[in-house]
Amino acid sequence: MSTFTDKELIKEIKERIGSLDVRDNIERRAYEIALASLEAEPVAWLHLDNGLGIPAITRSKNIADSWLSKGWYVQSLYVAQPLPVVPDDNRIQFSVSLPAAFGGDKYFIDGVFQPLRYERDCEKAVVAAGGVVNWIK
């Protein structure tokens, strides 16, 4: 089994997200989640065994490094990614109106649980071509 560095994994995931290797939105979303976790940077560090009986938290990487140099266990803390806002039933609908140059057709897509990156990329392409996309809750 091969061992990959984080940089190699990030490069591979970015290539797959941008290529046809990703077959569906679920697989694309899984790659995006993996990529976000690999690229995340700690915002603070936690040390529990400081002799005071209370946890110590710092936002300074230098202080965290000094704790590590003393052999103390230090836990990196990360910001949680915000959740998308969706209606109560967790479903949304969107309509796409293509520009006249592309036939002027209008499409409705129902029951989308969350607008994934793929839908957002499609939205950008339609708008760039002169079409209209409406998200309906």
Structural features:
single chain; 137 residues; alpha+beta; 3 domains; three-stranded antiparallel sheet; 6 strands
Give an overview of the whole structure.
With 137 residues, the chain is of the alpha+beta class. It has 3 domains: 6-39; 44-77, no CATH class; 92-136, no CATH class. 35% of the residues lie in helices and 20% in strands. It has 4 helices and 6 strands, in the order ααββαβββαβ. It has helices spanning 6-17, 25-39, 61-69, 117-128, and strands at 44-47, 56-58, 75-77, 92-97, 106-112, 132-136. The strands form 2 sheets. Strands 2-1-3 form a 3-stranded antiparallel beta sheet, covered by helices on one side. A 3-stranded antiparallel beta sheet has the order 5-4-6. β4 and β5 (106-112) form a beta hairpin. α1 (6-17) runs antiparallel to α2. It is elongated. Residues 110-114 have low confidence and may be disordered. Keywords: Plasmid. It comes from Escherichia coli. This is Phage protein.
